[in-house]
Structures are given as C-alpha cells and as structure tokens.
Amino acid sequence: MIDAAKLAQALQSKGIDLRHWCSYATVGTVDDAGRFDPTDGAAVVVAPDNVWADVLLMPILIPLTCRVSLGCGGTAHIQAPIFPGDEVLVHLADGDLMQPPVISAILNSQGAKLPLDNTRRPIFKNDRLLIQCGKTLPIEVNAKRINLGSETAAEPFVLGNTALAEMASLLNALKVDIRPSPVGPIYPSPALTQAIDLWIQRQRMQVSDCIFGQKAPP
Questions:
Q1: Which site from 80, 93, 104, 145 is most exposed, i.e. has the minimal number of CB atoms within 10 Å?
Q2: Which residues pair with 122 in a beta bridge?
Q3: Domain segments of the chain: what residues?
C-alpha cells in the first residue's frame, strides 16, 4: 500500500506545488479589454456584508475580488482605509483561487513610504504602540467606555463646547449683576468686566481643535 503522506513529503520541492497561498497585489480594476486601472475608485466597495476590494495579483497578473480583513475581528476592530493603488498582502485559502481571498495587510513600499519624522527617518517607534493617520484623515475611537492612562482612569473629560457656553453665560450674567445697597446700586467693577470680556474673547484657546468627544456612548 502506498503511503500518500510520505509520498507527498518525498516529492516536496520548489515547483511541485504550483498553487499560490499568499501573494502581493495592487488594488485596482481590470476592464473587459484586460487593462488594469490602479486609480479606479470602484475597486473598493463597502457592502452590507463586508468591505471588498478588486486587486491584481503580482506577479501572476490574476484579477480577484478580496475580502478586506485588517487587524482584529469579531467585536473589536482596527480598520485602516484602503485605496486604489495600494499594495496589499493577499491570502488564498488552500491555495484555491476560487475561494474568497482575504486582504490581510496594506503594505508600505517605494510608492507609499512610511511617513518620516524630523530626522528624516520612518516614524516607527519600537518602544511603543504608535497610531499615525496621514492625509489629514481623522481617527475614530468608538466604545461604551474609553480609558486613557490606565484601566483605573476615572476622571471624566469635560465637554468643551458645553462647558465654555455655560461659563460664558454665567460670566455675562455677572457683568450685569447690579446689587442694591443703602448708598445706591453696586455695579461690577471695570476690572471685573474687563477680565470677563477677555476670558470670553480667548475661550476657544482653552479647547482642542483636533480632539473631540461625546457625552454618551454610541
């Protein structure tokens, strides 16, 4: 009797298994004439069931539609935007091109280099988790509770716009607060009125232009 497992092991060598289990690819579409377009925005589709991207496998030049599955899965996700022209890493289950392939990473390359710091080196830091978002793209963190610092962090963040509006309302009321006295009405002092006007004028300097929050979880 032939031992198929031992026979397969004995025959293992470069070129025996012609399947592609993993491949580089470029995001883009291929038209009916076989022309590849790495600029076509239709290459990326956000559908009800998943995010899909058309790619061209490199160097075998086979077009495929792939599931985009970056970072974690299940109920927790870290998702980066994916664009036409991106170089990606594609996994092919069992080496079968008919199975739904999966994009597992967006790669940096000569055409899409890592951002550089002020020393002209990649911003990569090997002693921390670094989250960097270029092209003026925002970063969203959505959760029932977000702790900054440690899991025991318990100080709530102030809602900047609400706090500034409430404080301005209070100070404006103080400016016109006239109190009666035996010698006549007492008005706020000019120094107090000037301080209130200056605070209101500068209040936007007290809040961030790029970090935003909300009162309740989504």
A1: 145
A2: 116
A3: 19-107, 145-218
Q: Which residues of 121-146 are buried (b: 16+ CB within 10 A; e: fewer)?
A: eeeeeeeeeeeeeeeeeeeeeeeeee
Whether 92 contacts 101, CB under 8 Å? yes
Which residues lie closer than 8 Å to 177 by C-beta, 6 or more apart? 188
d(CA 102, CA 57) in angstroms, rounded, equals 12
C-alpha distances (whole Å) from 15 to each of 18, 62, 94, 99, 208 are: 6, 19, 16, 22, 58
Taking domain 19-107, whether its CATH number is 2.40.50 is answered by yes
**Residue 171: what pLDDT?**
95
Distance CA 156, CA 119 (A): 37
* Residue 194 identity: Q
Q: Which two tokens stand for residue 26?
A: 């470029």
C-alpha to C-alpha distances, 153 to 93, 148, 149, 158, nearest whole angstrom: 43, 7, 6, 14
Cis check: omega of the bond before 63, within 30 degrees of 0: no
Pairing relation of β-strands 63-68 and 22-27? unpaired
pLDDT by residue (tens digit) across 75-132? Answer: 777 888 999 999 999 999 888 888 889 999 999 877 777 888 888 888 888 888 888 8
